[in-house]
Amino acid sequence: MKSNFRLLLRRSLGENTRTYSSDVGEIKIPQRIRRSPTDILKALSSTVGVDPTAAHYKFHDDPYLMPYSNPSKRSYALSQEAGRKAAQWVRQTHADLFQHKVADPLIEAYVPKVEYNDESNVSEQVLQNLIDTQQVSDVITVYQILKKREIGVSVATKQRILELVSFYNCQDPLSDQWVEENWFRQSNDAKNATQRLGKKTWKDDGFAEKVFEEVVQGGGDVHSAHCALICGMLKHGQVNRAWKLIEECKQNGIKLNTEVYNELLRKSVFLRESHEMVWQLMVELMVEMQSAGIRPNLGTLNSVLHCLEAIAGNKNTRMNAQSVLLEFKNLGIEASLASYAHLIRIFVRDAGKLSGVIRSILDTLEKNPELIKPKCPADNLFFLRAMDAIANTLGDRELASRLDKLLHKSDYSLIGNSFSESTYYRFYFLLLMRTSEIDEFMDFYYKFVPNIYVPELGVTQELMNSVEAQMGWKHIPKLWGDLVLFEQVRTNLVGKLLSLAMQGASEEPQLAPAMAEVCWSIWEKLQSGSVRNFEWSGEMMGDILSVILAGKELGKAHIIMDKIDRMQDSITGEPAVSSLEKYVDACLEATNIDGALRCIKYCDSRGMLEMEKLLAKITGSGLKLDGPQQRVVYELQKKF
Fold it and tell me: What biological-process GO terms show up in the record (predicted)?
């Protein structure tokens, strides 16, 4: 055995020693590939699949601390940011207590923010640092301090100040730290988006215009100064003054850059009255760019499509959009996701052509995954708008599935903020609900609910309708559990669920015990007083009574009947006669004559015509009545 092992070892060593580095040929060292600081994290992330059952990282990974309803998710997310804000306020207010270094090298975000006043030691270098970090209000303060002290500021720095304050309209930009607060604010503001469209927010004769005058009079770059001011005016709704300034630039030979034309194309709809005149103006502007030798870019394409989207009602807009896309493609400018988002809105009124447009877009993106990479902030509109069009205009499940696969294979952040994500899945859920069998849909439901998406009240209502239409009675316990979990215990939804439970117990008797358990859980939940503003109806009481009796729970049925009898003056409507008849039959079967008589007396007090029929069940049952029971029957019979 040892000799064989040695022989094999010598052979393997001999074979290895025959290979020399010179036999391989020239060694070529590959070119260095530049890596970003997050490339390693991206590589690690690509090895781990997405777990839809895991909660969002912003929540504590604890089942007792995990929010599941939309209101609680909002509260948890905002309270977490409120805590961080409070901590920053303490740090800022008592900056003298936070002089220790918490990181080396220093992380600026951990350092209390410097507050500038007339006594601060400032310089042009400080001003440039503030410009780099986009602290607009501090830039204005420091510049005014320097000006008051008659400390000179270079024209180049003034130009940078002009560009900053024009872009942000002399206001600090929204901080990236408060993601949740920002998107909740945006979701609320979205309701008034139409009213805000074209609204002027530019500060006339403000700080930006004063700096502009100083740059021009101080011998600065007149072209760049005019471009910065005009872009700011157009961006913040001062379209008329910007247009006059553009006309002056043309007369005085001041050159405009691509960014000015991009903003002007985007605002063309506010400069002309009719759709034809708007398109004519856009054509004139693009011809001007060509004549002046100004090369368009992706922003130019998206600005044109954005304006065409605003006049999508014009019959020629769709043809014009196609010609624009072709023209820019010939210039070597490929459309981005934002371009496709605008294109979908342009064609959304023509369902016949919309289907072909979306199919063509998906074909292009599937063949060229590189095109899915974000190129501009508006790219995150694509997936939401595409799903909206597919679900609500086309109703095409196959296209929706292709779009969803594309989203999960690419950069998922392109879905946008949490509000956009919720809207996207609402459209997708409603489409699948209309086009899938209930069991197939529920598989999808279990995958995404509740950690990724919590159905809104309307979606829950549609789901109940789908369960009823397809007789998916076995899913009723899940629906009730989610109503409680998502804090959606509403009168209309509970009433619908009780109706479904009664149908399920009637259609499939083997499910009656499970339906009875659900109904009793509903009863206990509502009787506990934890649900506010809930109003019982007689129909709902009757449904619970029927299902409880189908589950052979007569004792619980007595409790419900007692509630019906005692609260008959405060409950709207009456239980169905069939429910009361089932209760009487169950009481007689259990020889509980008092229970049956109580139900008949309730029918008498409500003036129900079926009382005689129910009383006949007792007299014809063959059961022996005692004296008080006979007197009750006699009194009731006298009313016939």
Answer: mitochondrial translation; regulation of translation
Range 529-536 average pLDDT: 89
296: nearest Cα among 272, 337, 327, 320:
327
Secondary structure letter of residue 75 according to DSSP: H
Q: What is the DSSP letter of 390?
A: I
As a whole number of angstroms, the distance between CA 483 and CA 466 comes to 16
Structural domain including 494 reads 475-575
Tell me: cis bond preceding 105? Omega within 30 of 0 counts.
Answer: yes
Sequence-ordered list of residues with C-beta below 8 angstroms from that of 86, at least 6 positions apart, any chain: none
Q: How confident is the model at residue 539 (pLDDT cuts 50, 70, 90)?
A: very high
User: How many CB atoms are closer than 10 A to CB 231?
Assistant: 22
Q: What are phi and psi of 541, to 5 degrees?
A: -60, -40
DSSP string, 88-111: HHHHHHTGGG--S-SSSS--GGGS
Bigger pLDDT: 270 or 15?
A: 270
Indicate if 496 and 544 belong to the same structural domain: yes
Bigger pLDDT: 111 vs 14: 111
DSSP 572: B
Q: How far apart are CA 182 and CA 178, in angstroms?
A: 6
The verdict on 129 and 148 lying in the same domain is: yes
Asked if the structure places residue 422 within a domain, the reply is no
Tokens read off for 94? 């008592």
The full DSSP string for 360-386 is: HHHHHHHH-GGGGS--SGGGGGHHHHH
Q: 99 and 210: one domain? A: no
Is residue 64 helix, strand or coil?
coil
Helices and strands, counts by H and E, the chain: 32, 0
The answer to whether position 525 is within a domain reads yes
Query: Which amino acid is located at 125 in the chain?
Result: Q
Residues in the chain: 640
User: How far is the first Cα of the chain from the last one, in angstroms, to the nearest whole number?
Assistant: 110
* Tokens (6 digits) for 310: 């605003």
Asked if the structure places residue 126 within a domain, the reply is yes
- 486 pLDDT above the threshold of 70: yes
Q: Is 609 exposed, middle or buried (0-12, 13-18, 19+ CB in 10 A)?
A: exposed
Q: Based on the structure, what is the number of domains in the chain?
A: 4
Mark whether 70 and 140 lie in a shared domain: no
The stretches of 390-435 forming alpha helices (DSSP H) are 397-409, 418-435
Single-letter code of the amino acid located at 189: D
> How sure is the predictor about 233, in pLDDT bands with cuts at 50, 70 and 90?
very high
DSSP code, position 537:
B
Pair (237, 130) in one structural domain:
yes
SS3 216: helix
Classify residue 600: in a domain, yes or no: yes
User: In terms of domains, do 107 and 194 share one?
Assistant: no
Question: Is 326 a residue whose pLDDT tops 80?
Answer: yes
Task: Judge whether 200 and 238 are in contact, CB under 8 Å.
Answer: yes
